[in-house]
Amino acid sequence: MDAEYWQALCDGDRHASLAAIRRLRSSGLTNSQVIAEHILPAQRRVGDLWLEGTWSVAQEHAATAINEGLIHWLGSFSD
C-alpha cells in the first residue's frame, strides 16, 4: 500500500488521497491494480484498526467514505 495514500487516508484528507491515487494511475497502474494493491488493503487495515479500538467510528467512517469515493471515481473511467 502506498505510504502517501495511507497517510492521507489516516488524516481524513480527501484531496491528498485523490492526489495519491492519481499519482499511482499516472505511474502506469491500472484501475484494477490501484484497487487491489492500495484501496482494498487500506480498507482492510481501516477495519482492523477499528476492531482493535485504535480508531474511532468517526475515523473509520471518514476513511471508508474516502475509499468509496475513490472507487466511484476510478469506475468512472470504465466502459
How would you describe what is shown here?
The protein is mostly helical. 80% of the residues lie in helices and 0% in strands. The radius of gyration is 12 Å and the shape is elongated. It starts with a helix and ends with a helix.
Largest sheet: none
Task: Indicate the structural class.
Answer: mainly alpha
Ends distance: 26 Å
Q: Please tally the β strands and state the result.
A: 0
- Report the mean per-residue pLDDT as an integer: 95
Order of helices and strands: HHHH
User: Can you count the helices?
Assistant: 4
**Which residue ranges are poorly predicted, with pLDDT under 50 across at least 5 consecutive positions?**
none
- What coarse outline follows from CA principal-axis ratios? elongated
Strand-residue proportion: under 5%
Gyration radius over CA: 12 Å
Overall helicity: over 70%
Helix and strand topology:
Blueprint: H1 3-11, H2 14-26, H3 31-52, H4 57-75
Brief write-up:
With 79 residues, the protein is mostly helical.
Could you list some keywords that capture this structure?
mainly alpha; 79 residues; 80% helix
